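Protocol step 4 of 5: obtain the predicted structure for the target chain.
Materials: sequence only (see below). No template structures provided, no constraints applied. The aim of this step is simply to have a reference model before the mutagenesis design in step 5. Sequence pasted as it appears in the construct record:
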Amino acid sequence: MNNVTKNSILQTVEQKFRLGEVVLVIFEAYQIVGVEHQNRLLAIVKSGNSSALFAFNVSNYPPVNLSDLHIESVIPINETFLIDCSSGFGISSYQFIIISGNEQTLYYYYPDPEIFRSKEVFERTLKKLIQEYSEEKHGDFQWLEAYKSSDLTDIDLNIALNKFPPKNRESKFREELERRKPEYTIHEPYKIYCGTWNVNLNAPGEDLSLREWLATTEDAPDIYAIGLQEIDMSPETILRGEIRPDYNWIAKIMEGLHPADQYEELLTVRLVGMMLTIVIKKSLRGSISKCCSSMVGTGTLKFGNKGGVGISFQINETFMCFVNSHLAAHVQEFERRNEDHDEILRRMSFNDGFKSRNILEHHQIFWIGDLNYRLTKTDDEGIRTFCDYEKIFYLDQLYIQRVQEKRVFRDFQEGKINFRPTYKYDPGTDDWDSSEKNRAPAWCDRIFWKGARIEQIAYESVMQLRMSDHKPVYGVFIAYILTRDEAKFKKVHEEVLKTVDKYENDNQPQITVAETDIDFGMIRFHEHYSRELLVANNCHLPVDFEFISKDDSSNGVCEDWINISHLKGELITGNSLSIRIDIFIDEKAASKIIRRLRDSTPGEKVPLDILVLHVKNGRDVFITIFGEYQPSVFGLRLGTLMKLQKPLIEYTLQELVSIDDDVNNTIPYHKDAKAPREIWLLTDYLYRNGLLIPHLFTVQRKHKLSPRICAIRDWLDEWSTEPFPGTPQTAGEALLKILEALPEPLVTITEHNLSIYASYFDKCRELVVNKMSLLNRKIFLYILMFLKEIQKNYANNGMDDRTIVKVFSHPMCRHQNDQHCQRFLLQFLANDFKEFAKNEFAKQ
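Step 4 output (structure tokens):
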């Protein structure tokens, strides 16, 4: 980027900020997302006594307009801010990491001399601002509020252009909460004590005290990580792959802890001779979760005589990992030690039941153990008498492999060694090895760490413990653990919910509905009602919609008596659609709507149904259908009709429900009535006016939708004295509708019984007596006697018995297979049942 281009970009970036907010430095970088390299522009901006790093997503490079720059993240330069410029090989040598709180963001810069010079200015400016903040210890970051959500919740063009679907609510919520973690977390100091000791196959004696090793600090550590090697290396133990903890050693460890606090064992993991025990203050137990262990054998046949054991857990918001390892022995085997290191890194994995993590996927890592790296090219006798360890440390194999060759423990740190080599001693003494092998001294026992905000305050060996050929080593650290401030978290949580709501609104299809409550007013039987529902697309995305079922059942999207003109459709931006919703209460729906409204009060708007308007990738819209219903003779029970003392129109729905619930018959039936008044009126009219009319009833039900049905309904409901308002054909249709609208069928005999006995008249009479109530029997026989009269006039009306039973079988029985009911009815039309009917009518 030449100076002209850089100045032009700087001017564009400056337009993103307000008066008093100064852009100090801009730096061109990129990120690798999948297989793509995506341009990023980093800007350091200062306002008053605080500063921040802005990361821009660049949609057009070089950016010319403000629309070319979209704020991806805003990172305050405060006590949680760090920049890690350590590099590796290849492309990794051009990387740097921005650390804020618990979040790390990896960037790369292009291998260009001009950009490299800009990087030096960028890093120098950041480090200066970090230093300024650490000295001042305060800063007003209120000015950043204007930028934290503006670009992040704008309409995502990738979503608008259908390149990517919007993130789901939970994913976006977690992303935003993680992004704002620095606002509700603080770093609290914890004292971590790490110790390692190769005990050379010794069991802990009764007189052994580990206080000189484990209780060396003035203040009690918060967490202990104690690694032992060679606790047992017998052939049986190796072949068995022993993993049971050695409780004798654990007991000694617990006895030797700092006496100023109370501790408990968190977890111990063992593999043959290696054992790692994590001990914590009892007061910390509630802060620790997701604790699990792992082990990797790298020795002979992978039996575990060499390798590593590890423990992982989460403390507050930080994931910690501790590894204890015992690598290959002998001076010349440093390559095998390197391979053991690599294998442990590659194979060790921690699974907490929800997620697996490898060693490097932790925020803070402590690696201890007998790593077995030796001193090379040395005069053994010279080392034994030499006291300036710094001058011979460059001969340490681990120093060579880690620092010079960058072969192992890359990005790990180790404190300065100011103690004697910890191996090899004559057991029981502080004397170097005097055996035939005469091993050269070496710093075999080491402690490394990796992660941000870890400070080592001690790194020592303990000469007083002499039972092994190794000396114990310990390191004490202050580790700053990310901890959540609950009051701040609650505030951020509420703000993030609002942010996610806005994101969803901006980046998901939305349909606008003119009204979500549709009131149909008073509804009556056999009348059509319609309302219009206007839907529109006022968002920037195309909208696919459809009405769906309210649950996962196979039921339809609405009640049977509701019809929707457009069950699904698509609206592009700016378009609208008028959807017609129809209600028609027919004979099948009459009793259903009465049941739905039976608990309502007069004049109350009652939900008749709720429609779910589903928007693909968007939010569902719920539309409530309201209405009242005027009861009619169509849909009431036979018992209710028999108890009416006045015209039905004069009853409220609640009064009819009370009559319907009168199971003890405190309201008497009409004396001597063989059928309800309404059925008698219709059959009487047909008897006097319809017996001779050709094809009075048809299988096709030609008059089913006749508008005269409404007039007949009112005539029946009002007990009108006016002339009958219909024709014989519509009177016959009204009779069929009354039968079909009954909540339960008139004939209550099961289809199974009819299939067996419908061919035998005597059996049919028995079924009527045994399977039907007295009221149903009387009405059934009354209607059959009327049908018998129609049959007698076959010569004039053309109504033979088979046509009659085809018309009446389903309204009377409502079976899936009407043939059984037809055979049943034929038995009565083909035989004389007057005496049988007379006896039934006489019963009370």
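Step 4 remarks: The first strand starts at residue 22 and ends at 33. Residues 149-155, 157-163 have pLDDT under 50 and may be disordered.
Proceed to step 5.
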